[in-house]
Design a protein that fits this description.
Length: about 260
């Protein structure tokens, strides 16, 4: 390999990499869309030029046709008037007109074919243009989605860098330990107090207060003193009748004893 070729390869490797690094795909796609849209007016202008050429040739072809008709009429009129010399001059003009019309016809045929071809090219271009613009827009939308995803990823990475995951469990364990210690201290404090004696003292205070309220009601005549309950009467027990005696005699003796 020659030194010049090696030098060119070196320059391409250096500047090609620099250009690739500076290229922004998003900006390039947007520029491509603008260029594709800008080509449509230019293509329409070129097609209009081809169409105008077709129209001019058609007009010229019609003019030659009308001129042939006029010359033919003049030739016939000269022949009828016996002026062959004039008829010959018109015949020469007629021949030239026919040749010019033939050339114009060929040009018109090529022009019409070029016009039809330009319409086909435009149709294919518009179809390819729509396809490329659709692909570019979809790529740009994907690029925007990727940018948002990158931002979210950066945010999540920042959370991890800030040490949230590392300290979260540790802080929860510390809070739980502190809560358990406070609960244990509360239980120990409650165990050190004679809660049963406190309850008995509270009950005694309530009974004493109730007695005081009752005393005040007696002094104010709002209630009567409670009477002591009457002694129960002795229960009389009647002995059962003896088997040897009759039924009437024991009954009389019992009545006498009772009296």
């Amino acid at each position: 390999m020659s030194i010049w070729k090696r030098f060119k390869r070196l320059m391409k490797s250096i500047f090609g990499g620099a250009i690739s690094a500076m290229e922004d795909p998003k900006l390039i796609l947007e520029q491509n869309i603008r260029e594709l849209n800008d080509q449509v007016p230019k293509m329409n202008e070129n097609i209009a030029t081809v169409k105008a050429n077709v129209m001019l040739l058609q007009k010229e072809h019609r003019r030659y046709t009308a001129e042939q008709t006029n010359l033919t009429a003049k030739i016939k009129a000269a022949i009828q008037a016996g002026r062959d010399d004039i008829a010959q001059r018109y015949a020469v003009q007629l021949q030239g007109t026919k040749e010019a019309q033939a050339r114009t016809g060929e040009q018109l045929q090529f022009a019409e074919q070029a016009y039809e071809k330009s319409l086909q090219v435009k149709k294919a271009f518009m179809r390819e243009r729509e396809k490329k613009i659709g692909e570019a827009k979809e790529a740009l939308r994907a690029h925007e989605r990727a940018k948002w995803q990158a931002k979210i990823a950066d945010t999540l990475e920042q959370f991890e860098v800030a040490g949230v995951d590392a300290t979260h469990d540790e802080m929860i364990n510390r809070v739980n330990e502190s809560t358990a210690k406070n609960e244990a201290r509360m239980e120990m404090a409650l165990d050190s107090i004679d809660t049963e004696a406190l309850q008995i003292e509270e009950d005694a205070q309530e009974i004493q207060a109730a007695e005081l309220v009752k005393q005040f009601k007696l002094e104010m005549g709002l209630s009567e003193p409670e009477q002591a309950p009457a002694a129960p009467e002795p229960e009389l027990r009647i002995p059962e009748a003896e088997e040897s005696g009759g039924d009437a005699a024991p009954s009389e003796r019992q009545r006498e004893r009772t009296e």
